[in-house]
Design a protein that fits this description.
With 196 residues, the protein is mostly beta strands. Helices cover 0% and strands 50% of the residues. A four-stranded antiparallel beta sheet has the order 3-4-5-6, with no helix packed on it. Strands 7-8-9-10 form a four-stranded antiparallel beta sheet, with no helix packed on it. The chain is globular.
């Protein structure tokens, strides 16, 4: 943690969650995180006071009975939801404040490699699949139905939504990048290379 007023480091987590597995809540007063299947809330000076909210345990794997942790996970920015993807195409959506699973989705076969919430937690974008069948899928969470999908040759390393949630730019493996217009559903390959 960095104190911007004093321009110095004040403290650090001993177990820093990976990208997408933590977020600030309560106007920046607390942090909620997912580490090794445990959802915790941190508060207090330098966020050192930790409270366990729930233990969702290890996730299923397609190569054995359990995996060490989720294949992917993300917190919704506006509501207390957490999506957790597994190595076998399943996604669980949790309300971390109420400590309950609110939806379970089957997003095809293979690893769920990326997740992102849209529409204040009403929709979820999931990248999943096995080699040759990878796709980016948009799901309506109220109905639990897949709304639409786009093939993703080679898979994505990451994606970002526009602030108005009408577009996605997805950065792919091997230089294949895509722009997806969520209003029209049209996907266009971008012609630029970020590799140096």
């Amino acid at each position: 943690f960095w104190d911007a007023t004093e321009n110095r480091e004040t403290d650090a987590f001993t177990e820093l969650p990976t990208a997408g597995r933590w977020r600030f809540t309560d106007g920046g007063e607390t942090i909620v995180s997912l580490v090794r299947g445990r959802v915790s809330q941190r508060r207090g000076r330098n966020f050192q006071e930790e409270t366990l909210l729930m233990d969702i345990g290890p996730r299923p794997s397609n190569s054995g009975p359990v995996a060490r942790g989720p294949a992917s996970a993300t917190f919704a920015p506006d509501v207390p939801l957490l999506a957790v993807g597994s190595a076998n195409g399943r996604v669980e959506v949790w309300d971390w404040k109420r400590r309950e699973r609110v939806r379970e989705l089957t997003a095809g076969e293979g690893v769920v490699s990326a997740l992102g919430f849209l529409g204040k937690g009403t929709r979820l974008v999931i990248e999943s699949g096995a080699q040759g069948t990878l796709a980016l899928r948009e799901w309506e969470l109220a109905s639990g139905r897949e709304a639409r999908s786009w093939p993703t040759p080679g898979g994505f390393r990451s994606h970002v939504f526009s602030p108005d949630e009408k577009q996605i730019v997805a950065l792919g493996s091997g230089g294949a990048h895509w722009h997806i217009d969520l209003v029209t559903g049209r996907a266009t390959r971008l012609n630029f290379d970020l590799r140096s």
